[in-house]
Design goal:
Blueprint (H helix, E strand, L loop, with lengths): L9 H24 L1 H23 L6 H20 L1 H17 L12 H6 L1 H16 L3 H28 L3 E3 L3 E5 H21 L5 H28 L15 H26 L3
Antiparallel strand pairs: 1-2
């Protein structure tokens, strides 16, 4: 994520660093294993993320929207594994309509269209799960693709934080997320492009320049996903989507950029990436 204008407290920085040291190797290990460990991890993360998404918009007792969203995302992932992404995404759209049209129980939303915002969590999270399952696959190429995605997002986050801290300057979106700056935005994109392009050249990839440009595009999408979630949180007066990850907040706070970048890489590779042979 982009840097913060206000300095984080040392204790918060320590929590963030410790959480990253624990979760980073765990996630990478499961990604390396692939197959069922990876898909189970993805499903668990998706269920937690859906809960956070609905809770941001409609706090209170478990209602129909959250129940339908849980069932929908679990069904989308299951159908993707059994019959493929086309059917899974089609079902996601249908269940999004069901969740959006269905009257909620418990606390009445502040706005009439809040049910649709809550229901949007189904395609928002479900489509990204489908994309990441497709990218990972069960081959060495899948491992390289999902690794490229994760590194692009993580390097962008780190580069944005460091460059933003060092340079500061004008804010990127002061009404949505006052902590982000243009320096951090471009610093993250440049970092992703340089690091991933350099890594591609080092390992002998066919088109390192294409890899660098693609990493930069994924960084842009990651920043967009970060800003999108920040806008939703500001709309509903929420600071963090949750508190499950010390120093980071909720699952959504940690994967908002990944949710936006994963479908882009999947579409790119599906449409033209395989022909380009960029990896």
């Amino acid at each position: 994520m982009a840097h913060r204008l206000e300095k984080d407290k040392p204790s918060n920085l320590r929590e963030r660093a410790l959480s990253a040291l624990v979760l980073g190797p765990l996630v990478l290990g499961v990604v390396y294993l692939g197959w069922w460990p990876f898909k189970l991890m993805l499903l668990c993360a998706a269920m937690l993320a859906v809960r956070e998404w609905v809770r941001m918009i409609a706090p209170g007792p478990i209602g129909r929207t959250l129940t339908v969203s849980w069932i929908a995302v679990a069904l989308v992932v299951t159908l993707d594994l059994l019959v493929g992404p086309a059917t899974a995404l089609s079902v996601a759209m249908v269940l999004t309509l069901v969740a959006g049209l269905m009257p909620e129980t418990g606390k009445t939303p502040a706005h009439d269209n809040d049910r649709w915002w809550a229901a949007f969590g189904i395609p928002y999270i479900g489509a990204s799960c489908v994309a990441m399952i497709w990218l990972r696959g069960d081959s060495q190429t899948g491992l390289l693709l999902i690794g490229f995605l994760l590194l692009s997002v993580w390097v962008n986050d780190t580069g944005a934080f460091v460059v933003g801290r060092l340079i500061g300057g004008p804010r990127l979106a002061p009404t949505i997320s006052p902590a982000k700056t243009w320096a951090g935005f471009w610093g993250g994109i440049a970092s992703a492009a340089l690091v991933l392009g350099g890594l591609a050249a080092w390992v002998g990839a066919h088109a390192p320049v294409t890899a660098a440009l693609l990493a930069g595009m994924l960084a842009v999408m990651s920043n967009g996903g970060d800003l999108f979630e920040s806008g939703v949180k500001r709309r509903y007066g929420v600071k963090d989507s949750g508190g499950i990850i010390p120093g980071h907040g909720g699952i959504l706070d940690r994967i908002d950029g990944l949710l936006a970048a994963a479908p882009v890489l999947a579409l790119f590779h599906w449409l033209i990436g395989a022909d380009l042979g960029w990896w």
